[in-house]
Amino acid sequence: MKHLLLASLAALVATMPIAAADYRARLPEDETIYFLLPDRFDNADPSNDRGGQAGDRLHTGFDPTDTAFYHGGDIKGVTAKLDYIQKLGATAVWVAPIFVNKAVQGPPGHESAGYHGYWITDFTHVDPHLGTDADFKALVDAAHARGMKVYMDIVVNHTADVIRYRECADGAPCPYRSRADYPYTRKGGPAGAPINAGFAGDAVQSSANFAKLTRPDYAYTPYVPAGEEHVKVPAWLNDPIYYHNRGNSTFTGESSTMGDFSGLDDVMTENPRVVAGFIDIYGAWIDRFHVDGFRIDTARHVNPEFWQAFAPAMLKRAKADGIPHFHIFGEVAVPDVATLAEHTRVDKLPAVLDFGFRKAALDSAAGKAGTDVFDHLFAGDSLYEDGFATADELPTFVSNHDNGRFAWYVKQAFPQASDEEVMRRVILAHAMILTLRGVPTIYAGDEQGFVGKGEDQAAREDQFASRTPSYLDQTLLGTSATHATARFDEDHPIYRAIADLARIRTATPALRRGTQIVRASGDTPGLLAVSRFDPVTHREVLIAFNTSTAPIAANVQVETASRTFASLHGTCAAATAPGSVRVTLAPLDYMICAAGASE
């Protein structure tokens, strides 16, 4: 009887709308994530625009006319727009790093600001440009009161660019110097004076071994400029011994995990003191604010042993704080499924951002490839640690702040396409992430028809009224408005389409937790059909997409028990014979069809 009651309870929880359930009980795959950069989202408190600093933009970092500087958005702005985000259908908000950043860095004439959050000096507090620790607590509490989760974007690989090398002129790039050419036990190369006696190398990751690494001048001679000796928090981060100090990464070979990321100080994450230090830093954020997950920046540039210790420690810390389904996903910015899977198997990261899915969507819905790209993508799901269960937890996306907006890629592939066609392709891509396996992740602004002009800063437009010339001259999809006015229009056609899809996903367990089978695909643009199955009732939900600009009519295989279909989106037909249903789709359209109870 006890087992029957537990099974009945599990069935009830799996089928009830997730908005009505305790948000702590939701699995990572139940969420729909909304990703934003606080500085570019909404400016609710102009008093913090300059971060409490005086002077020009090179001191304050504030210049809303320049894409490379702070524009004024803040955490209070995110809190003020939670209703807008929730109405879109998002159940979790992922915020770009909020930690104290070096306001401005870069050589003379090439300065830029840390508005994006990835140039951290103080890992323990909120950057004053974005608000206060109390503001962040208010955001998390307000989200939780709505049944929404908050994910933090965290950085371990590097800090802001503070450390300098004597051998390099100020601002000049420092080429990477390898362990073979510059071993830890000699100063300046194999012929140099002996140093760090007895150090057995970074592969021996014990406290006793790293106690013998006392001098950081094996490759370069690092130093901290006057006035910045104590800028980093916690204080141990100010000591160059806790950094690799080997010059700029080439992003190949050993430099991928040991080189400075475009000059940023690369932390020696092999050192047990560093491992313990970051566990303390980020564990404290879980304890203090009860956040619900971490997105890990530049995860592929950190040695696997660090993650093998860090990720379990964070999950344990979260569980102790009453957070049973803490979601951790790393940024591994490559589309190759084997490489992505490696970081779940070797590094033991619970999940990674699904750059493979993004490529499949770009190649098909924003390109000219066949729909069989999804066959190849999903065939690799078994490679992940825990196989398909891990694949279900991969955040899927089509746009982001580094690689550009989906609409921009559509315009590159189809320069003659009308704005209507571009918008249909954008909606089609969002239909893919909201119905196929994985955790849909929407990049702020996509729902308002943002197009952008490329990658990085060109895809980080203000959602509040912008003063940036290169943003103001952009045309938006689905509206005659421009970036000169705040873009939070709940009647925008893309916003409405995503909201409808999110509502369907929330109410349909098969689209959140269901296993999936590719039913139809081809080597040219056209039909992609996928079945997903309710985790409790096992009823089928058939999803079909048309990535071509011609209408489609085709027979698609379904389960023989699936005789009738309710139309969740589009016009669904009854099975024409056991195991076959006729699918009819307009150009660049999609349908979602839920099978009824078997007869």
From TrEMBL:
Keywords, sorted A to Z: Hydrolase, Signal
InterPro entries hit by this protein: GH, GH13_cat_dom
GO MF annotation terms: hydrolase activity
Signal peptide: 1-20
Residue span, Glycosyl hydrolase family 13 catalytic domain: 35-505
Keyword Thylakoid: no
Record protein name field: Alpha-amylase family glycosyl hydrolase
